[in-house]
Design a protein that fits this description.
mainly alpha; two-stranded antiparallel sheet; about 75% helix
């Protein structure tokens, strides 16, 4: 079966990934500095600052709790901002996508290739965050080896979410709607800074559909070997479903903006 979303070739995706890498290696210092330093600042400031007031949270030392929350936040920010900001400027200002679709490359291949590369970046950032956490005294379980997989899939999904928004924006002023209306609530109400078990019901329900809360739970399960099998299956299903839905939206909306 072929079509706008099903005609995807691995060689074309590889070409997009290679282009992203070629650009990134020339400017890597600035974006990686922010992506790595920001979650570490959260970890140190909250883990040792607030952690001095609260010893344990949800059965974990607060530093441990915050370490996995910081890793999840790094995946959200490092994943979503390239899709949102780069996606907007490449479509609206630089018209890079116009040149790409003039070649034998489909919109779905562009979205997939860019999200695949962003997944590599989020994997690196999440791993570095937990390595720093380990140096600071966080005890990690052998199951921490699953962290790169979680970081990659989460980064892929959040990139697609940002790309989907970018395809709909008409000006840079509308970034505020996305950041204040989606990004901030998503990372605050996700069990990253505080547990949601004892939160009011009206606050817990949004967290159930917040993909970042499921990414956070998976990070904790991998880092500390905790969680029930059924609960983890639900978390994995939500994250994979979110990745699939946002990929479809990003590809459809970007195609509509460029072609239809």
């Amino acid at each position: 079966m072929t079509g706008p979303l099903t005609d995807v070739r691995w060689d074309a995706i590889g070409a997009i990934v290679h282009r992203e890498w070629s650009v990134f290696r020339r400017v890597w210092a600035a974006p990686m500095f922010g992506s790595v330093v920001e979650p570490i600042v959260y970890l140190v400031a909250f883990g040792f600052g607030f952690g001095a007031l609260v010893s344990t949270v949800a059965g974990l030392p607060y530093l441990d709790f915050m370490a996995t929350g910081s890793a999840a936040i790094s995946v959200l920010f490092t994943g979503m901002f390239p899709g949102l900001i780069n996606g907007y400027f490449r479509r609206k200002e630089n018209h890079l996508y116009d040149g790409l679709i003039a070649a034998p490359i489909t919109v779905a291949e562009i979205v997939t290739g860019e999200a695949a590369w962003t997944g590599v970046r989020t994997t690196i950032v999440s791993v570095i965050t937990l390595v720093v956490a380990g140096v600071l005294g966080v005890g990690l379980a052998p199951t921490v080896v699953f962290v790169p997989v979680i970081g990659y899939v989460g980064g892929f999904a959040f990139h697609c979410l940002g790309a989907a928004f970018a395809a709909r924006l008409r000006s840079t002023h509308q970034f505020d709607f996305v950041i204040a209306g989606t990004l901030v609530p998503m990372f605050v109400v996700a069990g990253t800074f505080f547990p949601l078990d004892d939160a009011p019901v009206w606050l817990r329900y949004p967290a159930l559909v917040n993909p970042l809360s499921h990414v956070t739970t998976l990070f904790r399960a991998a880092a500390f070997g905790i969680g029930t099998p059924l609960g983890l299956v639900v978390n994995v299903a939500v994250v994979l479903g979110f990745a699939a839905v946002t990929w479809v939206l990003a590809a459809r909306w970007l195609r509509a903006a460029l072609i239809d």
